[in-house]
């Protein structure tokens, strides 16, 4: 069987590795002209690290990541510690190490891309349409090229061209808040292996360390959709002025042209994810808000499941049906819970925030130990 994959992000490359490992011919098409550094930091929880092990890439990914050792939740603009958790607790409870690791997205993509033979990934191919019949599925590209295969995988993200070809225009859902992200030098006050999230009114700030004495940070603010500033770094500094150190130091030390801004978007869980031979994985199928750090992790799980289903199924359509049946419930639960969590985290009312912070201060030590591993302890199983 020959498979075309549209998109060479985390999900697309993981699918390519998985399908090649079970014996299928794969071609990956990417609209960008070359492999380049995009994005910022992402978390790889134990569920994703296990899945990467099944793909033979776990050790290589661990080599470019940094294990989380301590996690904090803070309220009152970062001045009040609500919860401190040690990674050692989870690693002992679930017999997995590390339980969560942090990696720069570009470095993760580079590791996965390097495990594919030269020529498998073809750059500069923007998908503009997909057609299919009883003999195969054809992907058409903006440059005039077309390619036909037995099965097509849309791994081209939230605004997937493959999704649009299958189901027509489907605008994503705006969560009501925008997010800035950046990577800068690690301040001396932030220990390696630290992961923290600090809450205020209608805004929050996250910090996590990366290899190479770097820190990935994100800043979330309630705002109308589509807003942008001429100087995004200054916009972050203005929104988080007076927060606990080292918030302003982190933002100020990040080059202005390296501060990324994106609105937080997802899609309410819904089927189908495929039509005939053509289907979707990762953010193209089940985009989630980033509150649990599971978006990339779920895409890696998808790769393992899809490879198993394609190998076992009598037809491409049957493979997609089995894939959706196996993956929908889990991904929908994460998407829905992440949406609810983000809504509470972004409350603006002073009274509601005082209530939230007070309740969380009492419950977080118990809830944190139960909720954090809820999705991360999942094992997708081998190929």
Automatic annotation (TrEMBL):
Keyword Oxidoreductase: yes
Keyword Transit peptide: no
Classification via Gene3D superfamilies: FAD/NAD(P)-binding domain (3.50.50.60)
SUPFAM superfamilies xref list: FAD/NAD(P)-binding domain
GO MF annotations in UniProt: FAD binding; FAD-dependent urate hydroxylase activity
Pfam families per record: FAD_binding_3
Domain annotation FAD-binding: ranges: 2-315
Keywords in alphabetical order: FAD, Flavoprotein, Oxidoreductase
InterPro entries: FAD-bd (IPR002938), FAD/NAD-bd_sf (IPR036188)
Cofactor(s) required, per the database record: FAD
EC number: 1.14.13.113
Record protein name field: FAD-dependent urate hydroxylase
Species this chain originates from: Urbifossiella limnaea
